[in-house]
Structures are given as C-alpha cells and as structure tokens.
Amino acid sequence: MALGSRRLAALVLALVLALALAAGTTAPSRSAPAESAARAGGNPFTTYRWGTYAGPLDFTWLPYQHASGRRRAILQYLIDQPKAKWFGHWMPDGVLARKVADYIAGTQQGDPDRLVQFTLFRMVPWEQDACRRLPTAAEQRAYRRWIGIFADAVGDTPAAIVLQPDGPFAQCAPGGSSVLSDLLAWTTRRLGALPRTSVYLEAGASDWPAPGQGGVERAADLLIAGGVADARGFALNGTHYASTADQVRRAAAIAAELARRGVPGKRAVVNTSGNGHPFDFGDYRGPDPLNAQVCRTPSDSRTCISLGIPPTADVGAARWGLPDDVARQARRVVDAYVWFGRPWLYRQNEPFMMSRALPLVTSSPFWPGLD
Q1: Number of structural domains, the chain?
Q2: I need a surface site. Which of 15, 209, 275, 330 has the fewest CB within 10 A?
Q3: What is the dihedral of CA 41, 42, 47, 52, to 10 degrees?
Q4: Euclidean distance between CA atoms 287 and 290, whole angstroms
Q5: Where is the signal peptide (predicted)?
C-alpha cells in the first residue's frame, strides 16, 4: 500500500511538472500577442495603437514651437497627426541608429507597443538618375549596409514601413536591369523578417503608371520584382494627388492582379496627405507640379492641393464621402489611410514652408476648424 501511495504521488508530481512545462512554453511575453498578429499578416494599424512623433525630427515641430495664436492653432492639426518620417541617403551610417532610436522614442513616448511609421528613401541612384545609370558595386554595398543598420535599430519595435516612394522608377533602369528591384526585394525580406514590422512596397498612384499604359499590370510587375511576396502589401499616392476613391480602386485592381499571378492576400496603404482637392498629376495647370499650388479655400476651383482624409484605419467610414462600392473595396483591401507624403515641404523635400502649411490645413474639407 505504501508502494502504491508512492507511485500515486509520483504520477501526481509528473502531471504537475508536465502542466507547468506546458504553461511555461506557451505563456506569452509582453509583446507576443501583437507579434503573433504581425507574423500572421495582421493589420498593424489595428493591431497596435498609433504613435505620433513629437520632436525636432518632424520639420513642422520647430515652426510650431515658435508660433502663437491662430497660426499655432492651425499647425496643431498637423502636429497631432501620426505621420511617417522619411529616412534616406542623407543620414550617414554613423548617425542612423541614433536617429532611428530618437524617432522611436519620440513616437512611442514610453509605450513600447505603439506603432511607429517610417518611409525609406535610401536608393541611390533614384528617380530620373535611376533611368540614366545603375548603382555601382560600392553603392550597392553601401545600400545594404545602411539597411542593415536601420533594421537592427528597429528591432522588435512595432513598425509600418513604406519602402521607396516613387516606386515605378525601378522599372526604368538602363537596359532593363533588375538590380534596383533586386535590392528592393532584398530589403523587403530583411525588414519583413523583423518580428513586428509590416512592409508596404510603393507602387506609384492611380494615375502612375497610367491606366492606358497597362498601369495595373506594370504596378504588379514592379511589386513582384520588388519582393511583395515577403511584404504586408503595397503603398499608393505618395507624391501624387489623385483621389482616394481612385487609389482604392487601383489598390483593389492591383491586389486582384497579384492574386491572379499567385501572390494573394496583399493589402494597401493610401497616402491622403495632399488629395483633399484631388486631381491627376497630368492635369495640373500650375507652374510646378512637384510643388503644386495650395488651395486658398475649401471651395477653390483651381487644380490645387489641400490635406485629405486624416490618418485612420477606419477606411470605409461614411464621413469620408466615398461611394458605397469604393468603401466596400477599401474595407477589403486597404489597411489604412496614412500620411507619408509631405506637401507642407518644398517639393515634398525641405524646407518646411509656412506659406504652404497654413492653407493646406484651412482649405481641407476634413479640417474641423478652430473652436
């Protein structure tokens, strides 16, 4: 009987140890639920709370700090929106990790589970230069080294990254070379392997590549070549001003084309920072489409720009005024409307221009106005 008791006690002990072991192997860490969502392809804009950066890395910050009265109140609207900071070739390797860390800290404000948005613009050469020459071997090594530093600095931060605005320039490489797309595909894999990072490869806009020139098919070409299979999806309208409805339609068409080619389930983000009064890029009638004139009032009849739908994951909401079919498409294929364009800067580059920023806000159909 004593032997039976010992056996029973041993069995009980074994069972307790097994349960404890099972609990230890399945108990989540602080970030595990969100990490699992990211690994499974979940929408980062609904998985995490959005962070809003506050500090000098935002070109709007210092002008806002020195403003007062009505001007400060208008700029407050810009300051309050979560935006995607651009990181690129102008940030040397030696300062990059610190810049990333500062931006993460200024965005998360002590909450390590807040989503941080980035825009990467590191490719050299790019834009028209990419049509004239290929990157040298040294430039390719420098690119990979920079991306590695950036990826290590992001680490397990919840991040949504738009990769390389003006993405269609990858298709104009001399001789049809794939070197630019190959570098983008390598970057997509590198960043997409981070535990809580979602990558959106930039694919132009609804008016670029042009619909009449195989726009959807060409966008799918560049996305597949750029590694979209390893990304959460793609981004649209970074430097153009076409309507959100047109972007959603383009996103749905691209997603369908990718699925047809064996890359299903890809989602989009749409930049809405400059399309409050939308127009196609080729329809612009002002002096410089890259620095398009700003609307003066909400009812301005010129081809001009103003702030569009504020950053949100509620993409099909009635308050955005989208047609019903577009709202349904948005819920199906769009993760969020985001601001990774920067129309308050000269040529979306720099410097900050108060003369642009103020009317961009006050002419927007979505600005709530001052109390």
Answers
A1: 1
A2: 15
A3: 60
A4: 9
A5: 1-22
